[in-house]
């Protein structure tokens, strides 16, 4: 019986840092999210059903918490300047890997991580699961048996094994913590019997591989377990694959584009002045920016609360502008409220109640 959200989540690794003298540690830290709920820290990066350069920027908000243990281990022996330089060079290198435009690169595939190898890493096809963990080098995958070449006769489908089917960014960031940390341990079979009875079995449900169930074979990799058969429980891909992408009208798209540009400008201004802000102003600004970003997800999902949520945000912006005599902020709020009213009254905003 499959879990409530993800039968065997795409357990591909997090982007952990590694020192130049010990690149194998990158491979070990990449496998860390196979330890059950730790996958939740990184799944956001793999939840996109599209694969392009923007996927490289789609990161978990608390992802670095999962690799903190490895950071501390390396800090004992690696000078900070070397550690930081290597970490960010590693991340920069991985940016170009998120592309469907770059073909197989011949001999380079033997030792470098390439777009072809990384496409497999992001795939949810059975043969792609738990494969190609390398950040810059692919030699560790070849050495430890987790390398898998891209198959030319099978189109890769991207995203989680069970697509999240939502643009709600807070839900996308954190839903898997509940799914693996709690829901999985509460599952019952068709006869109503607990699949993970007792405290210890519930701990195993949370911290053993996400695809683990009683009877599933596992192996040890250093200090944690991983699936003996990486394809077990993974459904075959049914083509054609249609990514989750509810349609939006052109006027609404234009409104959201303008709002996105305003959000970018506001975020840059916030980042430039954040060190000089008081804590109350800093926290309130941060919360507002998060709620601003949340608004897009509601519109993209055709959520029934999209208009109410956006109008509440804009009313708050208008009130702040008027109370602080920030005329530009007040005008922004009023103009945006009027635009939302026009979009709603002309049928350009569609709200649909999702089926439970």
From TrEMBL:
Domain Fatty acid hydroxylase: 37-146
Record bears the keyword Methyltransferase: no
Record region (Disordered): 1-27
Gene Ontology terms: biological process: lipid biosynthetic process; membrane lipid metabolic process
Keywords from the UniProt entry: Lipid metabolism, Membrane, Oxidoreductase, Transmembrane, Transmembrane helix
Subcellular location field: Endomembrane system
Membrane-topology descriptor: Multi-pass membrane protein
Cellular component, GO annotation: endoplasmic reticulum; membrane
Membrane-spanning segments: 252-270, 282-300, 320-343
Protein name: Fatty acid hydroxylase family protein
Organism expressing this protein natively: Ancylostoma duodenale
Lineage: Eukaryota, Metazoa, Ecdysozoa, Nematoda, Chromadorea
